[in-house]
Amino acid sequence: MNKGDKDKLFFFDTTLRDGEQSPGASMSVKEKLLVAEQLSTLGVDVIEAGFPISSREDFEAVKTISQHVKTSSIAGLSRAYEKDINACWDAVKNAKKPRIHIFLATSDLHIEKKLGKTREQVLDMAVRAVKYGKSLCKDIEFSAEDAGRSNVDFLCKIIEAVIDAGTNTINIPDTVGYSLPIEFGEKIDEIKKKVPNINKAIISVHCHNDLGLAVANSLSAIENGARQIECTINGIGERAGNASLEEIAMILKVKSQYHSFKHSIRTNEIYNTSKLVSRLTGISVQVNKAIVGANAFAHESGIHQDGILKARETYEIMTPNDVGVPESLLILGKHSGRHALFKRIKDLGYNKLESKTLEQIFEKFKVLAGKKKTIYDEDIIALVEEDTASGKEIFILDYLNATAGSRIIPTATVEILKNSDNKKTKPIIFRETAYGSGPVDAVYKAIDKIIDMDIKLTDFLLRAISSGEDALGEVILKVEYKGIIYSGKGTSTDIVEASAKAYIQAINKAKLSDNNI
Ligand code: KIV
Ligand code: ZN
User: Could you tell me if 311 and 336 lie in one domain?
Assistant: First the structure.
């Protein structure tokens, strides 16, 4: 702990790790880097970038983020095994401030049923893991998984031992969201009182939202001495999610008379961060979600509207501006020029795009503005994302024609350009036609004939991503190829085209990883 850290509350964001464990969430390495850059602009102290041993993509993401994001600490998650810790260190070692986050279960239920061990064995394993981690990295966090249901005396014993072994941050997770604020606060208080060397480490908490109490439990913990909060943007995470960063940050701001901690969150970056995370993970924010839901600042009833017009404070405890919602959203359309578009892209948090990329986005913007009267933030994010997420393309959709109706057999013809690995050879055009149970099925069957890969569609989601009759449709899907799952996203004003784009994106990822093996 540094001097002056006593009154500081550290924000540890785990959107890219626990948040990524949300059902349906999946981001590419490039997308994770975009989120990490925005988290650092938001001011989080620690970014948990992933779980490096869990997959090659996770390892790459943690490594890439460690190389590029320099203001926040970058943590990787690791089980208490040397092979995990080695992979984690390999992924984070180039960060300016690397952290290894080791976790091991401490509740009797997990120790006996999941690990098949005794308390003594777990204690020994934890100490060895922390000592090993410390020999590689000076910043170690230890998480006592299922601490919410762990015996407090054993918890205190293991905490004391891992602090002696070199842990800098001791994390107390309520892994299954089982605690009440009063219980959880008492647990933190007991740990503070009973662990003799507790002042050598920062107490952290990591609360899940199974009973809707993640934020309340986190607050109770800081009232009792915790100084790091683990949370996610939009509260996403395993099952019902994690404590939501934006709710905690705004509670601290609105109720500063009760919580006078120093912290480094820039609340006016909340809106951009929330939008970015929801777009890239594909997990939409419920409309009535506190702070970032679409209705969070909307006043419907006449009495409320009247009150707001007379004095905002009558029905508003914070302003849209506090969380960075632009006062008047600049409406973009076909008459908007480069300058307006580039400014909005920057305001949305994409401030590191090269001018060549911006020009490409502008070209696509003009095409879209020809089809759609109003271009919303969601549309712009989709354009930016399409450009930055597509990566190397082997197959490119060049032409698509699909017909369907109540009395005809759905038919599709597609033309695909196939790039070869050899840059000197020109791409080859393939054309195929197929029938299907619907237009999308027909398109996929025609694509399958061209790509000649054993691809299986496992998940398909279609939704509108902006408002109005001419809203953009987005398709998020997953395919399985050689036992590995690949995701794809596609947007268009035409849902059949969006479906084709998403399918091709997933196929390209599968083909590329095939070529790399
Ligand atoms: O919920 C949990 O216990 C976790 C740990 C790995 C910190 O996510
Ligand atoms: Zn968790």
Answer: no
The mean pLDDT of 424-433, rounded to a whole number, is: 84
**Which residue has the CA at smallest separation from atom 1 of ligand 1?**
175
For residue 14, the ligand 1 atom closest to its alpha carbon is 8
Average of per-residue pLDDT values in the chain = 90
Same domain, yes or no: 407 and 458: yes
Asked whether the predicted pLDDT for residue 80 surpasses 80, the reply is yes
Across 225-236, average pLDDT: 98
Regarding whether 300 and 338 lie in a shared domain, the answer is: no
Looking at the structure, tell me whether residues 139 and 83 fall in a common domain: yes
Sequence-ordered strand ranges (E) for 293-387: none
Whichever domain contains 105, its CATH number is 3.20.20.70
Mean pLDDT of 355-379: 86
**Chain-centroid distance, C-alpha 108:** 31
Q: Are residues 419 and 353 in the same domain?
A: no
- Whether residue 262 lies inside any domain: the answer is yes
Helices 270-281 and 377-389 meet at what angle, rounded to 10? 60
Of the candidates 217, 249, 281, which is a domain's last residue?
281
pLDDT above 90 (res 104):
yes
Ligand nearest to the CA of 228: 1
- The share of the chain scoring above pLDDT 70, in percent, equals 94
CB of 497 within 6 A of ligand 1: the answer is: no
SS3 annotation, 258-286 = CCCCECCCCHHHHHHHHHHHHHHHCCCCC
Q: How far is the CA of 287 from the centre of ligand 1 (A)?
A: 27
pLDDT number for residue 402 = 94
CA separation for the pair 238, 255 (Å, rounded)? 29
Which strands sit side by side in the sheet containing 456-464, from one edge to the other?
Answer: 456-464, 473-481, 484-492
412 dihedral zone (left: phi>0; alpha: psi -120 to 50; beta): beta
- Residues 403, 315 share a domain: no
Distance 222 CA to ligand 1 centre (A): 18
Structure token pair of residue 111: 């120790």
pTM score of the predicted model: 0.79
My answer on whether 315 and 461 are in the same domain is: no
pLDDT, one tens digit per residue, over 322-355 is 999 875 455 677 887 888 888 888 877 787 788 9
Q: Which helix (H) or strand (E) holds 192?
A: helix 181-194
pLDDT reported for residue 374: 77
Q: Is residue 110 part of a domain?
A: yes
Domain residue limits at 350: 326-371+378-385
Residue that terminates a domain, selected from 385, 414, 431? 385
Q: Residue 517's pLDDT band (boundaries 50, 70, 90)?
A: very low
Ligand 1: residue whose CA is nearest its atom 5: 145
User: Domain total for the chain?
Assistant: 4
436 with 456, same domain: the answer is yes
State which of 104, 110, 145 you would mutate to test the pocket of ligand 1, scoring each by most atoms of that ligand within 8 A of its C-beta: 145
